[in-house]
Amino acid sequence: MKLGNIRNFCIIAHVDHGKTTLSDRLLEQTRTVDQRLMKEQLLDSMDLERERGITIKSHPVSMIYRSKSGEDYRFNLIDTPGHVDFSYEVSRSLAACEGAVLLIDAAQGIEAQTVANAHLAFSLGLDVIPVVNKIDLPGADLDMVSRQLEEILTIPSEEAILASGKTGAGVEEIMEAVIERIPPPRWSDYEQPRALIFDSIYDTYQGVICYVRVFSGTLKAGANVLLMSGKIRMEVKEAGIFSPHRVPADAIHAGNVGYIVTNIKSVAEIKLGDTITDAAKPAKDMLPGYKEVRPMVFSGIYPMDSSDYEKLKASLGRLRLNDSAFVYQPESSLALGFGFRCGFLGLLHMEIIQERIRREYGIDIILTYPSVVYEVVTSDGVTREIDNPVNLPDPSHIEEIREPTIRATILTPTDGVGEVLSLIMEKRGVCEKTETLDETRLMLTCILPLNEILVDFYDRLKSITRGYGSLDYEIAGYQPENLIKLDILVNGDSVDAFSSIVHRSKAESKGRALCERLSEIIPPQMFKIPIQATIGGHVIARETVRALRKDVTAKCYGGDITRKRKLLEKQKEGKKRMKQVGSVSIPQDAFIQVLKSK
């Protein structure tokens, strides 16, 4: 296939705007997949992707399309995730393309991630083809979408193609537009071979398989290549294309998308967004698109049954092989035993990993309360990154604590804007800018602490806006705040599983709620148990678990009252001694119930 007849593009959109369904229609139109093997969401290979109707991993596929002029074209399509947690996957996929098909739901209109993905494509210099999808829906409002295209994205509405991924309407027009509006592969005349790694997976038998876009030169089996960021040399064992499954080929030529099987056995050595070049004559310049991916949310994962520790360790290792954004390291807790501190891109990413551990490896696990990475400046001027409250230095040595913030773009109906602003203020956020999109919707730009949106922010936003609100965010750096470590003491002993870093204004209410919950869950012991929430050495909340009492006066059936008093005093002394030497064992299900309720 000559270079001028190759088109590389991806499909970008908000969650559930029909990317994967449109991909199915393109595969049918080009007859890439036999009709008898065709099924819905073909490119979504994971059970979780099918169940939730979301794309988690990017999926490339090569198709041959015969245009109306009778000429054959090779389309290299990359289907991308839509959720904000996987925006890094989208940025790598865009870096591997020359153009993008931007899908907009005809009923819902432009959403927060539609705006974010469109601006990302524009910033990378890609040609964008707007497609109004789901025109067959009864609630489709084409006039509204046309206005939003021009006012929000400044794209002329006449450029939009009307389509339906479900019925197949407009699919041929999209493919003709890809030929006309998206340019042939760029940078193909560079002297040395260069290829961009936009994804990688681990195969038990073949080792690490890299998904690559070759910009210049050729990649073929037996070639010795170099990873430019880490200067790692490797040998190409096999090369091929996606159709849509892996099909070995003699070589992957400039302008094409394919895969290479390497002799590397660890995905950790492969950096996504890295540039592959010839080991003998390496390129001088890396391809744009590489940046280190950093986990933003951390949580502890512990097995319910301590005997499953080794099984959990092995399963996390396997998950890490196929997901380079997921990181983990061993940790132990007095309350929960041995487990792992894990880093995730966001809450959906955490949920997906948790579900995969339960399903694919059959392990019952408990996750501790999610936290973020704080920057702590100590009195000697050293800045440390802390992702676990247990590792926080002594308060007397801390100069300041900085917390990560996000710049959030929230699209909301105008009638719910008051409640949305109240929610932002409750979460310690600041609204920077308000834009009116049309007579029914507003776009708010806010700065929010990342820690505040971890648990219930998105759910509450959806609830307030009756499902019409949408959220997209990007990291906006660190800023100093009045943060403190909240400790929970049970019978005077600190329980590390319940420690957290909170804003001083919210410490008292959170401490009181935790103490109340624990007093309900911890079973009564032989003596009274004080449960205290403390900041440093200062107690801010307290509850007491009542003691079990034996009726020691039951045998006194007469005589002087002093006999009963003597027995009760004796019991009281015994309880006092027991409290001094006794230890409280908190049952495992108490931790599970508290962590769930948090």
- The chain-level mean pLDDT equals 83
Number of domains: 5
What is the 3D form?
Answer: elongated
Poorly predicted runs are none
Count of beta strands? 31
CATH superfamily of the largest domain: P-loop containing nucleotide triphosphate hydrolases
CATH class bucket of the largest domain: Alpha Beta
Distance between the termini: 58 Å
Percent of residues in beta strands?
Answer: 25-35%
The CATH topology of the largest domain: Rossmann fold
- Write down the Rg: 29 Å
The description of the largest β-sheet is: 6 strands, mixed
Q: What features would you describe in this structure?
A:
- The chain is of the alpha+beta class.
- The protein has 5 domains: 3-181, P-loop containing nucleotide triphosphate hydrolases (Rossmann fold), CATH 3.40.50.300; 194-278, Translation factors (Elongation Factor Tu (Ef-tu), domain 3, Beta Barrel); 297-368, Elongation Factor G (Translational Gtpase), domain 3 (Alpha-Beta Plaits), CATH 3.30.70.870; 375-481, Alpha-Beta Plaits (2-Layer Sandwich); 485-597, Alpha-Beta Plaits (2-Layer Sandwich).
- Helices cover 26% and strands 34% of the residues.
- Helix 4 (112-123) links the parallel strand 4 and strand 5 (127-133).
- Helix 7 crosses helix 8 and helix 11 packs across helix 13 (588-597).
- The longest helix has 21 residues, at 561-581.
- The two termini are 58 Å apart.
- The mean pLDDT is 83.
